[in-house]
Amino acid sequence: MYVLTAKRFLSLLMAGSLTALSLSACSSSGSSGNGGTPVTLSEVAHSIFYAPQYAAIELGYFEEEGINLTLVNAGGADKVMTSLISGDAQIGFMGSEASIYVYQEGSEDPAVNFAQLTQRAGNFLVGRQAEENFDWASLKGRKVLGGRAGGRPEKDETKAHIKSIHGLAIV
């Protein structure tokens, strides 16, 4: 189980803040009416792994640095890439696959991948009822929804992990 320590939380928070600050300094859109630089960040999905970013937004850290951050949940890497290409967003949080596809199509101005935000997938096993003595074998023959809209369910790493670690082939 991954534990987010205070040191890691602060490191992630600082990295996100510095990234947004450095990117906003390069923005050609200028400043907004209240003196800050408008930056739209399009994310592939809400994730617990982005908690430091959400905290920084809510605590006003971006505003303190002169960044008027607008967070948009695009609901899929394809939609994040579309928002970047169209200029609706200046930063996109997604995996590298969408930028690779755009590059392979011969884009004259491809997206640039510049940071890895997480080391693990943001997948969790959640049930409708609590199970006092949960056992992975109880999933055998049951349907497990993996992924999200806009994702790649045929490449579902959650199911692959369950199979490799626990020997279960689940639907």
Automatic annotation (TrEMBL):
The keyword Signal applies. Keywords: Signal. It comes from Enterocloster alcoholdehydrogenati. This is SsuA/THI5-like domain-containing protein. The keyword Signal applies. It comes from the Bacteria. SUPFAM superfamilies: Periplasmic binding protein-like II. The lineage of its organism: Bacteria, Bacillati, Bacillota, Clostridia, Lachnospirales. Gene3D superfamilies: Periplasmic binding protein-like II (3.40.190.10). Residues 1-25 form the signal peptide. Belongs to the bacterial solute-binding protein SsuA/TauA family.
